[in-house]
Specification:
Layout: H1 6-25, H2 30-37, H3 41-48, H4 58-71, H5 76-85, H6 90-102, H7 106-128, H8 130-134, H9 144-153
Protein name: Helix-turn-helix domain-containing protein
InterPro entries: Bact_Cytoskel_RodZ, Lambda_DNA-bd_dom_sf
Keywords: Membrane, Transmembrane, Transmembrane helix
């Protein structure tokens, strides 16, 4: 399992202690919960004994807590949601700060790409039609017949 921060560990301890207490009050064995929730008994024991390093990723734990709570007659969704809302991973805070710092570096890249596209388009135009780029855009005289005859001579 990935490392949990202190807030995650404390929240997970509170939830698992509550689940264990309710299970013991109802005299339900871990094996019965495992059969009902389809969660391995070893995972449930590790969860109740706070051996969090033996457990899978946090997203899977949320599902286990939801199913475990539902099996005990509790609101499993609320239990798993409390783990999500009360715990903000440290990595996401740093990632958000890094995104704010990187926002300003995208502008020069966009300008570079635009200039690259304009240059590539001009080069492609020159390769496909070199006469157009070498010929003057404005004809020497405005007589349409002379323009047609000039083009026919070429």
């Amino acid at each position: 399992m990935t490392l949990l921060n202190e807030a995650q560990v404390e929240q997970l301890k509170e939830i698992t202690t509550h689940l264990r207490q309710v299970r013991q009050e109802k005299s339900i064995s871990i094996e019965e919960i495992a059969a009902q929730t389809l969660i391995r008994a070893g995972v449930l024991q590790a969860l109740e004994e706070e051996r969090f390093e033996e457990l899978p990723e946090l997203i899977f734990l949320q599902g286990f807590i939801r199913r475990y709570g539902d099996a005990l007659g509790l609101d499993g969704n609320a239990l798993s949601y409390s783990l999500i809302t009360n715990v903000v991973p440290q990595e996401s805070k740093n990632a958000h700060n890094n995104l704010d710092n990187k926002g300003n570096s995208y502008i020069p890249l966009v300008l570079t790409y635009i200039l690259l596209l304009v240059g590539a388009s001009a080069g492609l135009l020159h390769i496909l039609n070199p006469q157009l780029t070498s010929q003057s855009v404005t004809p020497e005289d405005n007589n349409p017949q002379s323009i047609v005859s000039n083009q026919a001579n070429k």
